[in-house]
């Protein structure tokens, strides 16, 4: 299952401040996509009360949750705001515990037990995140998780807070905690070394039950695993889910605009040119069968093919275009058309579109 945290982790991106209208549009898009859980924000965030009220008024199977620090007064605020699921964060690496909180291990265990138990008593499902677990002593982190479990937590979140693990290490982390706990496991992977999506999918394959994602992967620093990439992989490759991927372009475009994050044209799943082709060998192959050079049909993610003809095109691709029109040009005529295509494309500074090639063919004939 996926936990979208665009409105919490994503909103922590430097310079980003979503308006209430933008937040509503993001929630609408995530509901259309079929995401199982949406983290609406954090305790103390401006506009959280309105966001919670609006979200919980919807008739949806999606769960709305909130992030909270490990403080009992914050847990009470979450309950007062109507949340039925709370994600409590608590650091477990020695540096975070001592330098940031100024606590001893025993004091930390007491704090997490108290907060988790209170949340459970207030009628909320409790998830506890072990912040910076990737750099923590895993034996101690398991002790914290067991305290949370005994206090009523149904899930433990494993954040690679600064994105230092690789897929092999993430797999080991998940398997270690799965062997020592009876609760559900969630994973939260940062992208500091460009491995967030790979780490997230690896964690799910290793037994994690939930995974944090955000639209376009936005978040602190270089962000986290990209929702569109993980959702597409689970739906199209693993076939374990049925997310409505056709709604992704509108959702990604909206978040890109509101967060002022440009979508690279080659961005996996979301880029406008991921189904664009100009190489002659590939154009010829795709004329025979598009699946020869595509991992999935573009319409599955709301995209479309775009073919271009310029300096990289060859006889085979041009021959296919002419054959589609019932043309019977000789090899010499095809060669002449090929030269004309390359000459015009060079002058325009771009490849020609399919119709432009046909128009050029007509003029030459």
Q: What does this molecule look like?
A:
The protein is an alpha/beta fold. The protein has two domains: 2-259, TIM Barrel, CATH 3.20.20; 276-364, no CATH class. It has 14 helices and ten strands. The strands form two sheets. Strands 1-2-3-4-5-6-7-8 form an eight-stranded parallel beta barrel, surrounded by eight helices. Helix 11 links the parallel strand 9 and strand 10 (306-307). Helix 1 packs antiparallel against helix 10 (248-259) and helix 7 (167-180) packs parallel to helix 8 (196-205). The longest helix is centred in the C-terminal third of the chain and has 18 residues, at 331-348. It is elongated. The N and C termini lie far apart (58 Å). 42% of the residues are buried. The model has no long low-confidence stretch (mean pLDDT 92).
Walk me through the topology.
Blueprint: E1 2-4, H1 20-33, E2 37-42, H2 48-56, E3 63-69, H3 72-80, E4 85-91, H4 94-101, H5 105-121, E5 125-131, H6 138-150, E6 155-160, H7 167-180, E7 184-189, H8 196-205, E8 210-213, H9 227-237, H10 248-259, E9 276-277, H11 280-288, E10 306-307, H12 315-324, H13 331-348, H14 354-364
Parallel strand pairs: 1-2, 1-8, 2-3, 3-4, 4-5, 5-6, 6-7, 7-8, 9-10
Notable traits:
single chain; 365 residues; alpha/beta; TIM Barrel; 2 domains; two-stranded parallel sheet; 14 helices; 45% helix; elongated
